[in-house]
UniProtKB/TrEMBL annotation, chains A, B, C, D:
Single Gene Ontology BP annotation: dGTP catabolic process
Cited InterPro entries: dGTPase-like, HD/PDEase_dom, HD_assoc_2, HD_domain
Organism: Collibacillus ludicampi
GO-annotated molecular function: dGTPase activity
Pfam families linked to this entry: HD (PF01966), HD_assoc_2 (PF19276)
CDD domains: HDc
Start and end residues of each HD/PDEase domain: 55-186
UniProt protein name: HD domain-containing protein
Length: 422, 422, 422, 422
């Protein structure tokens, strides 16, 4: 790695950050790898585009944006707080931001549910096994790949970097909130990025804020709250994920029964083998386009359920849902399943009961501030607003409204659905 | 069509227009068709995402946006200029805006070049032959589909609508300039949409502007100029289109020689038949995901050129180019081709010479203003700035820089390339 | 009032709303009155510009903006909820939005505190006594001025209009939050205006929201919360108001003792007479420029306190403050006052103890939503977040830091100030 | 000047640049001077607020913004082009940006026309004579004030700094275009600031651009063009300046005849003395509030013309104008003057004939780019668009429409005015 820096900064034009600056050829090389370029073909927000039509941006753009925020944080920290002091630490930080999502496949949520894969596993394997990526990382030094993995997988060796890349106030979230807000067209996800960076500071092994920045943290946590409740957990988006899971399960079952007529070869390993036997090369073949192509094929399968499910996803005829007043007990669920099965609407293929928790952001183990007395305290001790952001759980029951309405037994089914809401 | 309007407006959240309003169930039905939903899988800006990473939005979002601007123009016109006066005309206008791109396939520019297809043809056939779309249109009345086609294909029956949907100052361009500017992150494409709408007015069979709005038109035409020169005609984007064309030509040739191992069945009709024999159903199977899937397959073909070309596109190792001082003559081109062929770099697969014209926007036959004397004049008579926007032609020569650098004959080749620039 | 509408809408270009539309000549006439034009010379945010330098915009721009939001609300209501149905009601609504601040003088907060004036009184008197304004209003009909006054002063005759112009979710607040956010450069005050308008609806005598819009109301109330805590109640701004009050009190005292050398004649009535004896004509002479001019004069007074206070305001050498741990008791306050007086720093002129309440927005008597059962409930019953927004009181003690530091007794004074913080 | 830098950067929140960063206590001291704080009371855009109501921002905000852009340019230059290399040069640059407008008084254009003062003179005198400013500057070293003056007054000692602070592509213009665009609400003034900074570079004694940045320069020059034609030279704004000039001339004449009843003492020196005899202290007393206060007084003068003119400005009853087809000859002008004088409308007080040139931006002596051959050329050689931006001259005749319409001789006058337009 002869040159530490390009003579002139290279830039990417970005809708969120205006410009993304790259001065380090090492970063440039990572961007140009096949594994990283593949992220262009994986949408950041999965099925959200079916609800917010603008949500069509890729993990590629988000990964660049995460890198850029990390770059800005480091620049601010080194100007004002004298850290980090060595170039290797900077490169660990920048590479971890750039590559934190490298192990994601298409529609991670639904896909990982059906195939029992884990993006953390694939991140590790790509960093350590992909010849191109591993080669570039190893040029820094032989320990670099494993140190980078340690940062991303929270190995506790580089606590400050871990906090920056994955914590209640990390550069990953900062980028995706702003980016997803821009593309969906909502204003909820906006917060004062520049000010948030200014109030953060390294403090021992933690990243903390100064007390006068409390309202900025409130604003940032509320941006998260609104994006989760209004966008990420939108009931129709969750229904789209349900539908996707149904498609994949059904296809897998048919495949294993030898009944699946069409199957893109890229999906075969996932149908045939456990995660541990799939190669990195096989994993990197997967992207959104493979999935969409599979759905396109499957709308011509002989199996009626798979045909219908695939067509629904393609043409956006999604599942409907009702909000359940109370968590459903097993007896109620069985009753409904039987009723649908009896009416000729296979419950396996069409019904789903979901508990949706807004509690993915347990900030309470989270952000600390330095009080007047120099002690660290959790921000929720000082902010009623943050204190009020407790997780909540909602229950929804998903079903195919059109099939119900066209069914001879529709009165029975509708009555059952009404019962859930009472 | 019992209900003329929904009781409450339905809305789509949009990053450009904030909200897109739908009050007419007829419009709602068109949006929910399979042919329209398919536009979600076709990117608006083709290969531009390889240069501006944010350019990942689809023709679906642009089509909704075009509809929304048309809706706003009609609302303004009816409030201030007493036109249109009947609901059928409004529906023709809205449907033409919504469906103006319905005949586009994936990567239109390169695709149509190789396969000799025409999106105008497919628009016509979808409106007239697609059962779902044609059915909804026919519910208005039996002439509606052909009248709509007349508007979109400039049949001169509805001159004002034609001007609104396709002219030098149309709602199509207004939306894509704003939308593409947002997603690429450049500011060049912005103009004062609301003011532009306010200065437009119907005048006989034309849409004209009032003279005091001259600077607003200048700003709009400059937005176009900048988007073309800086974004749409970016040399790397054109190089990506060249690469795409090379892939498709090579695959078609191999197919026709019986040498293509893998081919998604959706592409087969285009390899086998002339456009006129392809069915609407076959056409509607095509989208970006099919193409990406094909490229993924072809990187494992036996043919070395196709393998390499497909991998280049997937992993973003694009063709390089040099700006030519003068248009190249046939002898020079032949000399270069031979030299590359001799060096073992097949010119057919890798070289391209392009004349790039910024003159796609011949506004001079374009926008009229009403002068003080009540006469119509072209805006370029009143504006030196607009007058200066004449088309220009650039010439670039595309080639694979990495192959040249790795070639034993590289000195000869480099010297030849230098000659082009002199 | 012959013409109901201009043939073409007139517009104002506005940094917040893009355009402000005026179609009614009645509104146009009101804008062109002397009393309304005077609002150009009164800053919307009083002394805030000393903290947020961009806060230089006037009540004129805010009044136009409030009108525009009212216009949009009425347009939405009449399109979707069939109200209001008569033109007189529309005009009452528009005029109340336009004129709601007409009774404000310069730096209302500090000014009204010292001179015991009330902007509500002056609004009433201007509507009823100013020849120009009253004349235009009376052209609608003889009851119009008093009906308008009823709307603005909550006479309970037009409950829906009263809610729209002054309640927990009114067009006044909507405009000033967005406008003040823009000019100060903070993002805190932004919310989804268009969506907020869409979820509002008339319901009996109240304006309520639909339940699905709960998060939009949360966002709006949080915008308020942040603007109050971060901007409006900024400790330095409050200190600037304190300073202003000190200047005015001191000048009034000197005037009444016959010791004030310079006094702009426009201020004399307020020094000499109770509010009830001041004429509308005299009131309308007042604006920010008179006040600034007075301060300019007073920096050359013989009285040392007034000279110094006026110079401080002009040159931005403001009072400092400490946050008090507990509310101060009378004894402590007296002790401090004596200590400062003894040190030669007149406590009357320089010290102030302020209890600052963030509770100006008691939304709890506030916004109702229509539940699934059709009953009205307060939004804070459904939102933990809103429920957490209870008023809080802070206590600050203001003093002249520079004078303390230059004082021979500084150690005593500093020690006393430290005690307040413990 | 012990400390070179604050430990933590201080910031101002700004609507244009988000944050303005101050790390140097020297800059902080200059901002806190009386002369600089005075700029808060002088509006950047003079009388433009009478046309664009949002144009209420001060020279204070613009001066801070100019400083911030200079800071960004220096940061970019030192990162990428290794200049400037010493701290003194940086401070000269920052101070010149901050203080470039320090010599401006209220409504410079009209004021300087009537009183024959020059802001350049006052800048020089403030830098050299104002005790506070000169003191801070002299703390750097004894030559610093005169070197700073050399930069601002183009003494050719620091050519690069001169180019940065005042040339066809300077930080002053960059800030005011963006700032004025924001506040007026137009989009015309926007350009890609960050990109413009990136393409600029020091080259010998000049600041030039790289050729690939040509379109960015085009966009910037067009922003200027649009802001001048659409905003700065708006015919109503020029009419407001005309009115202001009429007020000041009339007041001065009356003063010199001993007929002016009210006169704020701050204006007296300007009525009595030539510029050279006015003290810096007297000059610094002047600001917008003095002027507005004077107009308020003068609407109660006995002189009918002054009364009326002052009331017009206060209540926004401006002069009207007609566009003249041709430049007017002396005979025509005399004929009109006589006709108005005969009709009892004093031509001296009410009429004005203005040639308005859009040619204030003679960029042709302007911006250079580095061609492929390493030679410098003017950008207008490479850009047809820039080449088309030649100055144009318009002629308008201003008169009081209301007085004409109320005049017994109105037919004669109207006929004369019509003649001008033919």
């Amino acid at each position: 790695m002869a040159d530490l820096h390009f003579r002139e900064e290279k830039v990417f034009k970005d809708p969120v950050h205006d410009y993304i600056y790259v001065k380090d050829p090492f970063v440039w090389s990572l961007i140009n790898t096949r594994a990283f370029q593949r992220l262009r073909r994986i949408r950041q927000m999965g099925t959200s585009f079916l609800v917010f039509h603008g949500a069509e941006h890729s993990r590629f753009t988000h990964s660049l944006g995460t890198y850029e925020i990390m770059r800005q944080v480091l620049s601010h920290f080194s100007r004002n707080h004298n850290w980090p002091q060595d170039e290797r630490m900077v490169r660990l930080a920048l590479a971890s931001a750039l590559l934190h999502d490298i192990g994601h496949g298409p529609f991670s949520h639904a896909f990982e549910g059906v195939f029992k894969t884990h993006h953390e596993t694939w991140t590790r394997r790509i960093l350590m096994e992909d010849r191109e990526i591993h080669g570039i990382l190893s040029q820094i030094d032989t320990d670099f790949p494993s140190d980078l993995l340690s940062v991303i997988s929270k190995g506790q060796k580089f606590p400050l970097l871990e906090r920056l890349i994955a914590s209640e106030m990390d550069v990953d979230r900062m980028d995706y909130l702003l980016r997803d807000a821009l593309h969906t067209g909502v204003t909820y996800g906006r917060f004062e990025l520049e000010r948030l960076i200014r109030i953060m500071r390294p403090f021992g092994h933690d990243i903390v804020i100064k007390q006068s920045g409390m309202h900025t943290v409130e604003q940032y946590l509320l941006a998260r709250y609104f994006m989760y409740t209004q966008v990420y957990l939108h009931s129709t988006t969750i229904g789209s994920d349900v539908l996707l899971g149904k498609i994949l399960s059904r296809a897998r079952d048919l495949f294993q029964e030898g009944q699946l007529k069409y199957c893109p070869k890229e999906l075969v390993p996932f149908f045939e083998k456990p995660e541990s036997e799939i190669t990195v090369e096989e994993f990197l073949q997967l992207d959104d386009t493979v999935m969409h192509y599979a759905f396109s094929c499957w709308r011509e399968e002989e199996d009626l359920s798979l045909r219908d499910l695939a067509a629904r996803f393609r043409d956006r005829r999604l599942l409907s849902s009702v909000a359940c007043r109370h968590p459903l007990d097993v007896d109620t669920l069985l009753e409904i399943q039987h009723a649908f099965d009896d009416a000729g609407i296979p419950s396996d293929s069409y019904l789903s009961y979901k508990a949706i928790s807004t509690g993915g952001y347990l900030y309470k183990q989270g952000i600390k501030y330095v009080g007047d007395d120099g002690r660290l305290r959790d921000v929720c001790e000082a902010s009623k607003l943050i204190h009020s952001l407790v997780p909540e759980v909602y229950h929804r029951f998903y079903y195919p409204k059109d099939l119900v309405e066209a069914n001879h037994d529709r009165h029975t089914l509708v009555e059952l659905l009404h019962k859930l809401q009472r």
